[in-house]
Specification:
This protein is an all-alpha fold and 269 residues long. The protein has helices at residues 3-28, 58-62, 77-96, 100-122, 127-141, 159-186, 193-206, 208-232, 244-268.
Amino acid sequence: MPPEILIPAAIFVFGAMIGSFLNVCIYRMPLDESLVFPASHCTRCRASIRFYDNIPIISWFVLFGKCRHCKSPISFQYPLVEILNASGFLYLYVRYGLTAQTVFYGLFFSALLVITFIDIYHRIIPDRISLPGIGAGLLGSLFIPMVFPLSTMRLGVPPWFLDALVGSALGFVIFYIIAKASPKIFGQEGMGGGDIKLIAMIGAFLGWKEMLLTIMLGSLAGSIVGIFLMIVFRTGRKYAVPFGPFLSLGALMSLFWGTPMIDWYLYVL
């Protein structure tokens, strides 16, 4: 197999394997279970899953979405997360190549996937992801990407780090103010603590401009879905829609297409 095909294929397979672990995180983290022990097993009959039934993406389709032992249905979430993570890794490789940026943003992509599904199922955003994510984003910004010449550094600190630090702090402050003001203005909480820490993590990885764009895109997507639910399913205005998935969507859009979107916006203005 030629290298131009072999490397992308390997990246996709690796992303799918990481996606398989993300499924473990999505299921076990809200239950405060170990991510390592016990080994993979059916959540219904508790039977251990053999290695040939645990091949990312493929095994779910081979088993027709059912446990080999008890025939209980296996959620389509499992191959979906694996496909999404594999596709995200492949896109990052195509965009950045075999670089530290791909690893850096691959970590970010995977973290947002886990946060999205946990928030959908449990309406929580685990601190075990967002808090280390803030640190990882800030630490990575010291070294990745090394795109600024030394002459542009201030006090030996890369501008990208300052951008990440401002993005994380500003995002935290904005959402903290909203969380405190919402009960007084709207009579209900409009922002949870998990959302506050999530936007701080997003700011640490993307910087302040893309963080603000994330808020705009996430709020727009959330409003569209909220209005759709109100019209189609006649849910009330107080129906709680988790904001984490929309923030994650906005963050990925900002990561992939943030620069041209911001440039277009400034040009229109």
